[in-house]
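Researcher: Next entry in the queue.
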Amino acid sequence: MLRSWWLACVMLACGVYVAVTQEVRGVAVTEFLIFLVLAVLFSPLVFPRSLSAGQAQQRSARDGRPIVYWRPGCRYCLRLRLRLGQRAGRAYWVNIWRDPAGAAAVRAVTGGDETVPTVVARGEAVVNPEPAWLLQRLTP
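Model: Structure for this entry, 140 residues:
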């Protein structure tokens, strides 16, 4: 669990440090807010609720929704998530840092690496897909 939050905690700690050491209060507050936004963006909070790889695979087999394997702190995962907007909830999200089976599924697709985001949609696996590619597969 801590592995998922370490980058967010580092950003928050940096923000607190900068705010405490700044002599100009207005600048300190602004810099703290910037670090706070970064902490939220790098946390698991921005992503839909994660499932285990087994749950996601079972549900995907039933309804055909894509599975997105991701990890906190990954800027490519964040880019994909933000570009999907509210439609991100139509996919199943698996945090590979919280689920060893998810990490194993990614390694099987990528040839041993844990490169994310890796998306499996309709039997096709793509590493770091364009958001438009996934959006096409999210339509019912």
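Model: The radius of gyration is 17 Å.
Researcher: Noted, moving on.
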